[in-house]
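just leaving the lab so this will be short. below you get a single protein, a line of residues and a line of whole numbers that encode the local backbone shape. id like you to explain what the token line says about the fold, in plain words if possible. thanks a lot i owe you, the record is right below:

…
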Amino acid sequence: MSRCLITGGTGLIGAQLVRELCQDYEVYVLSRKSNVFRRLFQSLPVRLVEGDLSSSNGLENLPSEVEMIIHLAQSEHFRNFPSRAEHMFQVNTASVVKMLDYAVNAKAKSFLHASTGGVYGSGNNPFSPDDPISLTPHLGFYPTTKLCAELIAQSYQNFLNVITYRFFFVYGRGQQRHMLIPRLVDNIIEGNPIHLQGKDGLSLNPIHVSDAVRMIKASMKLNRSETLNVAGKEILTLRNIAEIIGNHVGREPVFKEDHTSQPSSLIGDIEKTKKILEIDPLVSFSQGVKDLIPETIQH
């Protein structure tokens, strides 16, 4: 049985991926959240390596050899710049160096890691993985740490396959409520206003966690390096999303429009991803968002 190491295994994407891989792989999860690990995987054949990527504590306990590393860990302090800038850098960027160094020494064949669609900035058209990216101060600190990690990982492509995922607004059951889609759900239920740039607000194509995991699993079969957008099939505005949620919870969303600013777009073009992996996202937003709505108020 092939051995796989996953970081970020207690997060939204990681937890579902671990559950689906542990029957076919010898799965190790590097995590500092031992209590969460035990709650999620107590009955599953998954091994915990207690460690903290922000400090390197516990990394000496990683298995001596692995076939694949799936590095999904990312700093949870993306809103806390500059107060948690060091934590963001350590987890998002420096940890990639540590894990790549480990990957080479552990004779790994592939290194799969999580980036963000935020590395593109914003624009009027969908972003392709083949589009040039400019590193500018306007990008923001968090996406910059992710872009730096991408560049570092690409330097290792002569030693192992490097697959980079640029995730666009992944959502699903169990997601932290401060993230975009759960936050919208809670605000609409509570009657709080949804702030929009212009009439309709941000345009995006969110993806359900089950579809994101399907894409990761399909990419594990690749024998080459790739950069892939992981995004949904529907392009929606913030107004569209709020109205869909409102229909499910039986409440009319309250909108507050700001006509002094132009609506932005952060849309991932997934044509390359679909062609290479030969899969399409399956879950519509209207269906998937139900995972974030209490069953007692669903209409």
In short: The domain at 3-167 is CATH 3.40.50.720 (Rossmann fold).
